[in-house]
Amino acid sequence: MAVKIRLQRHGKKDYAFFHIVVADSRAPRDGRFIEQIGSYNPNTNPATIVINSERAIAWLNVGAQPTLTARRILSYEGVLLRRHLDGGVAKGALTQEEADKKFNDWKAQRDAKIDAKKQGLTKKAADEAKKAFEAEAKVNKARAEAIAKRKADEAAAKAAEEAAKAAEAAAEAETPAE
């Protein structure tokens, strides 16, 4: 029986969520599977991947073939590197401590990259919010100035009208009544 490690699609239209499963290659994509070993959510940034690496390595060791996308996910999570290092330990090329050190160094470097991306996204969002706030403040200031100018013009027009009425009343008072 040919066994594949592949993705099984779930979720809504245009909002996919995947389970990482071990299945018979003849089974349909979303059909029967042998074991679920993880999940992959590409809707978050960065994508959320949860995987049971021990089970994935066990299935790879007994001959399960990952699909291209599953291979990329396993590589991204370090499952393939861990399997490679375990093979080196089995052959005597490395000690277990050296393999663990190499894997932990790689994991620390990858985690630092992910954290830098998250911080970059957070900083970008904060900068965009600040720009939007500044633009809104500028528009509000322009509106306030326009309203103040309009009120000043109205007050000046009203004052001129009052002055004209007062001058007219004074002119009528000075003219003798016939």
Describe the structure.
The protein has 178 residues and is an alpha+beta fold. 62% of the residues lie in helices and 19% in strands. It has 4 helices and 5 strands, in the order ββββαβααα. The protein has helices spanning 53-61, 68-77, 79-91, 96-174; strands at 3-12, 15-24, 35-41, 48-51, 65-66. It has a 5-stranded mixed beta sheet. Strand 3 (35-41) and strand 4 form a beta hairpin. Helix 1 packs across helix 3 and helix 3 runs antiparallel to helix 4 (96-174). The longest helix is centred in the C-terminal third of the chain and has 79 residues, at 96-174. The radius of gyration is 36 Å and the shape is elongated. It starts with a strand and ends with a helix. The relative contact order is 0.07.
Q: Helical content, roughly? A: 55-70%
**What structural class should be given to the helix and strand makeup?**
alpha+beta
Q: Going across the major beta sheet, what is the strand order?
A: 4-3-2-1-5
What fraction of the residues are assigned to beta strands by DSSP?
15-25%
Overall, the morphology is elongated
Please tally the helical runs, counting DSSP H or I stretches of 4 or more residues. 4
Q: Quote the average pLDDT.
A: 90
Biggest β-sheet: count, sense, barrel?
5 strands, mixed
The secondary-structure element order is EEEEHEHHH
Low-confidence stretches: none
- Count of DSSP strands: 5
Distance between the termini: 125 Å
Q: Roughly how many Å is the radius of gyration?
A: 36 Å
Oligomer, anyone?
single chain
